[in-house]
Amino acid sequence: MKTIFPGFGWALAVILTLTPVAFAAEDLALVQNEAQEPQDLSEAYHQLVQSFRSGDSKAIQEFILGDTVKITAEPRAKDKEEYGTDINLSFAQSGFSAEVLSVRQDAPDIYLLRTNSSYLRFVKTQQSGWKLFEYGDKPIE
């Protein structure tokens, strides 16, 4: 592949991936990349973040596709509190970073959002709108 700056294509990709631009919900930002997130996904994400902050497991469950993501109430061990594939209510309230750093479109109706603390994969359902079907806490190091 030819590029205007030979040997610097990877650097440009990193710079573009790390440059935040405005996200639809207040105090959230995303990185402009090839994926353009739908407005209704942005709204669903904002509502999910509000549910995280409230710690209301029933409200959070409304955003999950079936039983694909588990919600736990028991706080994680201190040395592992930033890691897990469950939505830990304690971490969701105090450790979850809502700022979206990147958006990736994996399929026409599947998007991956990445924050400093977590990754969230959503699918758009015909009957219920955007649903979370994969989640994990893993900080960017």
Molecular structure report:
- The chain has a single domain, classed as Roll (Nuclear Transport Factor 2, Chain: A), CATH 3.10.450.
- A four-stranded antiparallel sheet has the order 5-6-7-8, with helices on one face. A two-stranded antiparallel ribbon has the order 1-2. A two-stranded parallel sheet has the order 3-4.
- It has 141 residues and is of the alpha+beta class.
- The chain has helices spanning 9-17, 39-54, 57-61, 89-94, and strands at 20-22, 29-31, 71-72, 87-88, 100-107, 110-115, 118-125, 129-137.
- The chain is globular, with a radius of gyration of 16 Å.
- Mean pLDDT is 83; it is low at 1-34.
Task: Tell me the layout of helices and strands.
Elements: H1 9-17, E1 20-22, E2 29-31, H2 39-54, H3 57-61, E3 71-72, E4 87-88, H4 89-94, E5 100-107, E6 110-115, E7 118-125, E8 129-137
Parallel strand pairs: 3-4
Antiparallel strand pairs: 1-2, 5-6, 6-7, 7-8
